[in-house]
Design goal:
Blueprint (H helix, E strand, L loop, with lengths): L16 H12 L5 E3 L6 E7 L2 E7 L7 H15 L17 E5 L2 E9 L4 E2 L8 H18 L18 H8 L6 H18 L8 E4 L8 E5 L5 E6 L6 E4 H10 L9 H15 L4 H28 L4 H18 L3 H12 L5 H6 L16 E2 L17 H12 L4 E3 L20 E2 L2 E4 L5 E3 L4 E5 L5 E4 L4 E5 L1 E3 L6 E2 L4 E5 L11 E7 L9 E2 L1 H10 L3 H5 L11 H11 L14 E5 L2 E4 L4 E4 L12 H13 L9 H12 L7 E5 L2 H16 L4 E4 L8 H5 L18 E4 L14 H14 L7 E4 L2 E2 L5 E2 L4 H11 L3 E5 L24 E4 L10 E5 L1 H6 L14 H16 L2 H22 L3 E7 L2 E6 L10 H13 L2 E2 L2 E2 L5 E4 L7 H17 L2
Parallel strand pairs: 11-12, 26-38, 28-29, 28-30, 30-33, 33-34
Antiparallel strand pairs: 1-2, 2-3, 3-5, 4-5, 6-8, 7-10, 8-9, 12-14, 13-23, 14-22, 15-21, 16-17, 16-20, 17-18, 18-22, 19-21, 24-25, 25-26, 27-35, 31-32, 34-35, 36-37, 37-40, 39-40
Helix pairs in contact: 3-6, 3-7, 4-5, 4-8, 5-8, 6-7, 6-8, 7-10, 8-9, 8-10, 10-13, 16-23, 17-23, 20-21, 24-26
Bound molecules: 4'-deoxy-4'-aminopyridoxal-5'-phosphate.
């Protein structure tokens, strides 16, 4: 940032690479080519001397020289403390600052070791663990410099945060835009009003003073995330407040398109605090210092441009610096402070302690004795079948629930009616304050003494001293400025807005930070801080003792971990608690919506009303087992066989894919009187004993290949992307390999099982010609062929209803589950009559709930809906579009090796190197974690877990498909 203080700075002395080479050789005895680096107020050139690189720094002759010694000493000190920083090279004469003649005048020059790596500023997105490490690095610098001092450390610099107010006042006249000038001055005043009383409690020491992301060097973690571990540019080293470096670090993150000032500040501060605990005063001062730093950057850039309108660097910076100022100015400082306090686990602020004793003396609205507790949480029963997406429908459901009575909606609840789908950013869904539902005209009263203010958003604010009470939805009859007494009428409940999902109501908030006007809904990641500022009015207003919302995803996860087997895994290290689904979307308890890109089981979309209606009706009538005689089983069986070619005419009903596969294996064995089965290496067919034995996905079981029983014979997976054969004759070659496997089976195989598209490998297409050849070989050897349609059947591939149809083959046995019940357990096996009859040798077949009346009507509803909503057509259309858009990412991003699959069964394979196809495993998982934050759920699959699953419900729209691709594109570009 440089030593600039108001006043003109003479330009840096130009030094050519040739001059630099000669200078470095003569002054330091180092030999190597030179190239200019970006220079601001001093001249910097990089020197590459064999394996070691250096930076030659020629100081601006206008500046004092003792600071060069200060900088060198600080760098040495930090290097000795183990930090990766530039180190001054000592010249043969023993000095590390050499005075030499350049262009006829003496110049002070230094040679520093070069700190290799990317700048942290190069990464557009920084994940939470990266922010934590950044904070820790900043703390290590502070700790490293704690015992360092130097006579030159006290110097008057523009970027000494202690002087920020002075700098803003001095430079504000350069801000040409009047509204901006007014804003920066007022924001600065507010920050300093908060800082002034804390100033004498802030630790002061030598600090780096420009610990921004552009002065931090980062390596790369295994998952491709930056690891900030080096510091450069000690040009501003000075004595200042220790915590100011942390503020500078935070501010440097805030120009990024998706930065979230408070959340980012929390993450960096938590890292810092974990390494070097902050004092109470420092925690309280941190946000005002963030704001102060932002004001200095904004006025400084305008000042530079006022003096030098052609300064291209400043032109580029200007909108970013002002964006930062706007962003931090939008945050109520009280909120930021509570957010930081809770993240760091330090004591609550005085304002909260002061307000804790406040008690109301009158009710705001006279409610019924026992008002209706209206449930509009994510789990409500009130808004079924997607009614929450339609405000008018929601409103009439709520009115119906009230049935003429008064009602109440709790504070701190994720509100289903506020959910926004396909949003990359969190949206405000958590309700702040209590909402009271009562007829238009119901009087609204003051809960205590106070003065009336008009809230900027039309709310009525009652200032009660240590708290404000904010009431929305009231037609006020008292004027701003009026003093009121407890119980005094403030106005009456107004008509609800036309687009409101609620009937007439008021929302009441109690705010412990007088003057702050909280919004009615806040984003989930800041809800804890908002709730600290706005406690539950219910208990304070004495209305209802018990409206506990009680959603705690982390608590539920800990209980899950205690009660569920660890190997029954869940997605994500910190999974959201998903409690609702609708079409292609899922919603967590706090109201964040996610686009579901993985759920081929919910083929129709989540909570499809056809399934709900069929199951509900049948549950009320009868649910029993297939030993009884009822119509639904017969109709479902007939529908299935109508969808299959001859001679597949006989159905067995089960509940899952694993059971279907297990049964299919028994069928081919009994029909042939043989035991051995051929399957593909890397295929997955289920978890039951036999299904597991023919499954060899390495991501599910890394030891799968070593532990196969003797009856299982593996042939290579015909993967033309990463398998052994990739050319035009791949199908033939793979088929030939399978043929030799078959030939090696003594007595011949009972059968062959494979998916018609390798689903678990990530939608890898089986090359045309392979399956017909293999079916021929197996049948010639007396075996039967099983097509496992569990993943890809039922129209998902778009072009055909069954995966095998695409290959022009007819299997002997078909297995199906997953989509067959759209989430309800429905599975079946279909075969020829004589194969089924041969099974009598094994006795009878019975699956207690397989083909139950409920499963059968659900199965029929699913088939009807796929037909009626043309979901196979949608798979073809939206799948084709999605495939095309994903393919375009291959050209954009080297990490995207290829896109597998067809229809709505696709896979995005990530590789570190396109020639070796080294799988990008850690990256794939980290990318999925980032996509979750951006509102998309997908997960890696394949032997190496490097293929992103793309198999959404078949009702997905083109808009949602685009949302997914846009987010993936963003993550690949901006980082994860
Ligand atoms: N076959 C295939 C191809 C599968 O992908 C799966 C499950 N992923 C199964 C069978 C087993 O199905 P289920 O989980 O319903 O037992």
């Amino acid at each position: 940032m440089g030593e600039r203080f108001w006043g003109d700075v003479p330009p840096a002395t130009p030094v050519s690479p040739e001059q630099a080479v000669a200078l470095v050789r003569s002054a330091f005895g180092v030999d190597g080519p030179a190239r200019p680096l970006g220079s601001n107020q001093e001249t910097n050139l990089r020197i590459d001397a064999g394996d070691v690189s250096y930076v030659l720094k020629v100081a601006n002759p206008a500046f004092g020289h003792d600071v060069l010694y200060l900088q060198n000493a600080a760098m040495r000190h930090l290097a000795a403390a183990g930090l990766r920083v530039p180190e001054p090279v000592v010249a043969p004469d023993g000095s590390d600052v050499v005075v030499t003649d350049i262009g006829g005048s003496p110049h002070h020059v230094r040679l520093l070791t070069y700190v290799a790596g990317d700048l942290l500023s190069d990464a557009e997105h920084l994940a939470a663990p990266v922010l934590d490490r950044f904070g820790r690095l900043v703390a290590r610098v502070a700790a490293g410099l704690a015992d360092f001092d130097h006579p030159a450390a006290d110097r008057p610099l523009q970027y000494d945060t202690r002087r920020a107010a002075e700098v803003v006042d001095a430079l504000a006249p350069s801000v040409a835009d009047v509204s901006r000038r007014t804003k920066v001055l007022s924001v600065s005043d507010t920050a300093w009003a908060a800082l002034a009383p804390l100033a004498h409690d802030l630790r002061t020491q030598v600090v780096h003073a420009d610990l921004a992301d552009y002065n931090v060097v980062a390596g790369r973690d295994g998952d491709g995330r930056p690891v900030p571990d080096g510091i450069i540019d000690f040009g501003d080293v000075m004595r200042s407040w220790l915590v100011a470096d942390l503020a500078t670090a935070i501010v440097s993150l805030l120009a990024r398109p998706r930065s979230r000032p408070v959340q980012d500040a929390r993450a960096v501060a938590a890292g810092f605090h974990g390494e070097l605990p902050l004092t109470h005063a420092e925690v309280a001062a941190l946000w005002p210092l963030v704001v102060a730093r932002a004001t200095v950057l904004a006025v400084s850039v305008d000042d530079i441009l006022a003096a030098d309108p052609d300064n291209a660097y400043a032109r580029e910076e200007q909108p970013l610096d002002w964006r930062i100022l706007d962003r931090v100015a939008d945050v109520p400082p009280e909120l930021a402070e509570e957010a930081l306090r809770s993240a760091l686990g330090v004591r609550v602020s005085d304002r909260i302690l002061a307000a804790a004793g406040w008690r109301p003396e009158a009710d705001v609205v006279d409610l019924d004795h026992d008002p209706v507790r209206v449930d509009l949480s994510v789990r409500t029963d009130l808004l079924a079948d997607g009614a929450w997406t339609d405000p008018a429908a929601a409103r009439s459901s709520v009115a119906g629930a009230l049935a003429g009575r008064t009602g109440v909606l709790p504070h701190d609840e994720g509100r289903l009616t506020e959910v926004v789908v396909d949003s990359a950013e969190e949206t405000p869904t958590v309700a702040l304050g209590t909402t009271l539902l009562a007829p238009v005209g119901t009087p609204v009263r003051a809960p205590s003494d106070g003065t009336i203010r008009a809230g900027a958003d039309g709310s009525v604010v009652l200032a009660c001293g240590v708290v404000d009470v904010v009431v929305r939805g009231v037609r006020a009859t008292v004027a701003a400025g009026a003093e009121v007494v407890p119980g005094q009428v403030l106005g009456a409940i107004d008509e609800a807005a036309e687009d409101s999902p609620l009937p007439p109501h008021v929302n009441v908030q109690v705010v412990r930070a007088p003057g702050v006007l909280p919004p009615p809904y806040v984003e989930p990641s800041l809800a804890d801080a908002w709730v600290a500022l706005c406690p539950d009015p219910v208990s304070l207003l004495g209305l209802f003792p018990d409206l506990d919302v009680g959603d705690d995803a982390r608590g539920v996860l800990a209980r899950r971990d205690r009660v569920v087997a660890t190997v029954q895994e869940h997605y994500y290290a910190r999974p959201p608690q998903i409690e609702r689904g609708w079409r292609q979307h899922l919603v967590d308890t706090r109201g964040r919506a996610y686009l579901d890109i993985v759920n081929n089981v919910a083929v129709l979309g989540h909570s499809h009303p056809a399934v709900t209606a069929a199951a509900t009706r049948q549950l009320r009538l009868l649910n029993t087992n297939s030993r009884f005689h009822y119509d639904a089983l017969v109709r479902f069986g007939e529908r299935i066989t109508e969808l299959l070619p001859d001679p597949l005419d006989t159905v067995f009903f089960v509940n899952s894919g694993s059971e279907a596969v297990d049964l299919a294996l028994r069928l081919v064995r009994t029909a042939t009187g043989r035991r051995d089965v051929v399957c593909l290496r890397g295929g997955y067919h289920g978890w039951t004993t036999a299904a597991d034995e023919v499954s060899t996905t390495l991501n599910d079981n890394p030891r799968a290949l070593e532990t196969r029983p003797p009856w299982v014979h593996l042939a290579p997976m015909p993967n033309v992307y990463r398998g052994e054969h990739r050319g035009p004759d791949a199908a033939e070659r793979y088929a030939a390999e399978l043929s030799s496997v078959v030939a090696g089976i003594e007595g011949g195989p009972a059968g062959f099982i494979a998916e018609p598209m390798s689903g678990n490998a990530g939608g890898v297409l089986v090359p045309p010609g392979y399956l017909p050849a293999v079916y021929g070989t197996v049948r010639a050897a007396g075996g039967l062929c099983i097509s496992d349609e569990v993943q890809v059947g039922y129209g998902r591939t778009g072009s055909h209803f069954w995966g095998f149809e695409e290959h022009g083959i007819v299997p002997d046995v078909v297995t199906m589950a997953k989509a067959a019940g759209s989430g309800h357990p429905v599975g079946f096996v279909v075969t020829r009559r004589e194969v089924a009859e041969a099974f009598t040798a094994e006795g009878s077949f019975f699956s207690s709930v397989g083909g139950s009346p409920v499963s059968s009507v659900v199965g029929l509803a699913v088939l009807d809906t796929i037909r009626d909503e043309d979901l196979q057509g949608n798979a073809l259309r939206v799948g084709g579009h999605l495939h095309e858009r994903l393919r375009a990412l291959v050209d954009e991003h080297p990490l995207v090796g290829t896109v597998h699959g067809e229809g709505l069964y696709l896979g995005v394979e990530l590789v570190r190197d396109r020639s070796t196809l080294k799988p990008a495993i850690a990256e794939a998982l980290a990318i999925c974690e980032r996509l979750l934050e951006l509102g998309v759920i997908t997960y890696p699959t394949g032997d190496f877990s490097n293929v992103l699953k793309v198999k959404p419900p078949l009702c997905i729209t083109e808009a949602s498909a685009d949302f997914f691709v846009d987010r993936l594109d963003e993550v690949l570009r901006a980082g994860w």
